[in-house]
Amino acid sequence: MADPAPRLIVEDWKIPHEIFVENDKEGEDPFFEELRDDHYNHLYRWVKEWGIRSVLEIGVKAGYGLFSFCSANPKLRYCGIELCKEGHRFARNAQELAGLFPDARFEFLWGTRSTDLDVLPGSRWDLIYIDGEHTAEAVFSDLELSARYADQILLDDCIMEGVVNGVGPWIVRQYGKGLRVPHEYFRTKHGHLLIDVAEITE
Ligand SMILES: C[S@@+](CC[C@H](N)C(=O)[O-])C[C@H]1O[C@@H](n2cnc3c(N)ncnc32)[C@H](O)[C@@H]1O
What we know:
Elements: H1 30-49, E1 54-58, H2 64-72, E2 77-82, H3 85-88, H4 91-98, E3 105-110, E4 125-130, H5 136-146, E5 150-155, H6 161-176, E6 183-186, E7 192-195
Parallel strand pairs: 1-2, 1-4, 2-3, 4-5
Antiparallel strand pairs: 5-7, 6-7
The chain binds S-adenosylmethionine (SAM).
S-adenosylmethionine is lined by residues 57-62, 64-65, 81-84, 86-87, 113-114, 131-133, 138.
């Protein structure tokens, strides 16, 4: 059996306090403080360790994910999809954070309802990070769409019922089609599930 691929050890990283927007109440929550260190650190390390060059993110909000990804790779090709009016009020913050990375390439899609999307921008993404609507229907639909475009999918919030009820049936459905779906769960504050789309086999 071949040796497992060596994993790089990437230094811990903390998302800076300064980037959080004032009216984002999460910033005052002790749970959010832990999330800040553990969750965004994992996003940073993921991009760094895997040498990720392109990321599409579903659910941009204020751009904290964007900031974490671009801190790990300042030359990243990034596309952010924010399809909820609630999230649009943070758009300026996300765009300001994008401005901190002059060597990265950005594209944003501000609209409504990802479940209505049937194509994504770009043809291939190293990583698609799904962190949008947390209902089973939306997660299933985001996975179905993203799997056509991604080498890897990182699904956030796998501790939430809607997310679990979306990803479970999606994986089972692939098995029903005779496909094996390599995936790995990371016990981060919000629970990250990595789906290795490029390694899906019959
Ligand atoms: C948890 S926040 C995203 C946080 C962001 N990924 C980060 O790391 O900073 C979820 C975002 O998804 C957006 N959203 C809600 N429904 C959506 C949908 N159907 N499609 C895409 N985005 C959606 C919300 O407006 C919100 O901004």
